[in-house]
Amino acid sequence: METLSTPLLYLPRYSTSLTVNNDHEHPVFLHLKRCTNSSQLKQIHAQMLRTGLLFDPYSASKLFAASALSPFSSLDYARKVFDEIPKPNLYTWNTLIRVYASSREPLQGVLIFLRMLHESPYYPNKFTFPFVIKAATETFSLCVGQALHGMVIKASLEADVFISNSLIHFYMSCGDLDSAYRVFMMVGEKDVVSWNSMITGLAQRGCAEKALQMFQNMEEQNVKPNDVTMVGVLSACTTKLDLEFGRWVHSYIERNGISVNLTLNNAILDMYTKCRSLEDAKSLFDMMEEKDIVTWTTMLDGYAKLGAYEEARQILDTMPRQDIAAWNALISGYEQNGMSKEALSIYHELQQSKIAKPDEITLVSTLSACAQLGALEVGDCIHAYIKELGIKLNCHLTTSLIDMYSKCGDIKKALEVFYSVEKRDVFVWSAMIAGLAMHGQGKAAIDLFSRMQETMIRPNSVTFTNVLCACSHAGLVKEGKTFFGMMEPVYGIAPELQHYSCMVDMLGRAGLLEEAVEFIEKMPMPPSDSVWGALLGACQIHGNVELAEQACSRLLELDPGNDGAYVLLSNVYAKSGKWEGVSRLRKHMRVTRLKKEQGCSRIEVNGVIHEFLAGDNCHPLSKEIYSKLDEIVVGLKSAGYVPNKSQLLQLIEEDDMQEHALNLHSEKLAIAFGLLYVEASQPIRIIKNLRVCGDCHSVAKLISKLYNREIILRDRYRFHHFSRGHCSCKDYW
DNA sequence: GTAGGGTTAG
């Protein structure tokens, strides 16, 4: 520790008077200019205090600027210096606002500004406003910015292009595009930054077309674009996923001699990966002489999202520093491509290696993977980890937790999370409504939707999909029709295909097949495969062969490879004893080599996921499982169970064999495994990739009674809670 | 003596 008795610098002891007489060449300023570390700065500070130079506002401002802006100084130290200055001048106030505006506490910038208005004799000048507007931008404080805008006008400073540009950026960041545009229009001499602020603002708000239109206007006005302009334009291309236009922009940059720096190269690279051209991305990546963490992460993300996992992994292993963004890119790449097991394994690797610390984004992706897999125990661990680290739940995390708990079958925990948070955005509300819907709690879902209306949060298109889905699963036809009718007139949300599908599903399930058909006929757009699929599903429930045939052929016109359509139609035939229809379908599937998606059920025991396929004997405990299954069948038969073969795609002709095939359904294997290895106090949680068949549904009900166990089964569309011989779906599914 | 706009992971 250096002390003042061993100075690093020799500071001549001037006999200073308090006034400096405009002697700006005071030697202490020279030292200040040459100062390279904080110890030297402190010595100068001490010297100025001793000599009283600090009482001169101009000299003090010099010291303060050095304390606030030099790379080796800290904001805390600068603040201490500021507090010692008896009469800070306007320059000093401006500098303090400036450093706070770009610090981690931008709000302080606004507060200091207010203090300046009260305590100082100065009125803000053309330099003050850009700093304080930046502070308002960083805090997303619309009313503060609006007030500042008012002050700018009163001070007759609205013609200042720097201030106007700050205001444009501010309004864009707050999402007030109209105000940004108004300020933009008022700027007399728009410079390149004015245009850039509009272009990047629009691009970041997802208004790609408007951003590109702005770019065109800019060219027409003969304002020469620079590298920042092109980053904004590329961002718009990336939103549009328009590779051809992206390539044109790349060549435009080269043709117009726009200087390409690292950031611009990164933006071009991102455009190529998002527009799915790995070739273009790779060749740019290889050519780039300078790369930073963004370059590496962008390339890694491109590989991972497009399924080139080996290449992605190689980037991770060779990049100079594996920060958390890189791990997140790999995890989300797997998760978004439905490879949840791989996503979880990367997450585990990350935790064990401790190379980087998981952040909110890591947790959101990993929770989604848990939700897909139904990995409740892993999901629970992540929730515990969040609590342990004291991570505050933001809306993204809250949504992911609610989604994970709902999809893993623990609706109570999902509700706990929902009620534990103070802040809920439209995604949080929608996720909770979806959770209740998939658990068949339609009434609760609707109640929640009503409570949502009491808040300022406006429902979006997804919210309505979830509400209609809730009505459909719970048979709430009247309510569903009301909500559907309100969408456009009350909420200004035009119904989309998924809303029509939900309505057809709802009407169809309720047996209103004619009404469902009329509804389809009145659709303002061509019905999609999922609309016909909903109708076909309803036909299966209500055994309407003729309509099923029509729905199936319309569905196959749109999606010829839809194996589910054949299965559903086959079930309709089987249900009404039309075996010739069944074998015709079977033959057709054989000829076209279309295979029914294999049924697969999953169960998690002690954090390990066990997977079963129909008739599968790959499991190491296969023998025990099958003997348990035999025991169950004997027990069920003596309780009066008769196998229900109506929903079996008739691949096996003989009766005995049919029954055998039924017994081998994957969910039955998983239930047998659960009875053997899940603690008696715990529910048996199973996840199936397809819809549960009627026979398995009755069997699960009986088992829940005979063995006095709770079984929670997630199928492709919803949950079934079996308990004491009943199912939560009330056999309406 | 002070100023404004940009790229990656949800």
Automatic annotation (TrEMBL):
PPR repeats: 191-225, 292-326, 425-459
SUPFAM superfamilies documented for this protein: TPR-like
Annotated ranges, domain DYW: 640-733
InterPro entries in alphabetical order: DYW_dom, E2_motif, E_motif, PPR_At4g14850-like_plant, PPR_rpt, TPR-like_helical_dom_sf
Superkingdom, taxonomy of origin: Eukaryota
Keyword terms, alphabetized: Repeat
Pfam families: DYW_deaminase, E_motif, Eplus_motif, PPR, PPR_2
Gene3D superfamilies assigned: Tetratricopeptide repeat domain
Keyword Protein transport: no
Record-stated family: Belongs to the PPR family. PCMP-H subfamily.
PANTHER family per record: PENTATRICOPEPTIDE REPEAT-CONTAINING PROTEIN (PTHR47926:SF452)
Name this polypeptide is given: DYW domain-containing protein
Species: Hibiscus sabdariffa
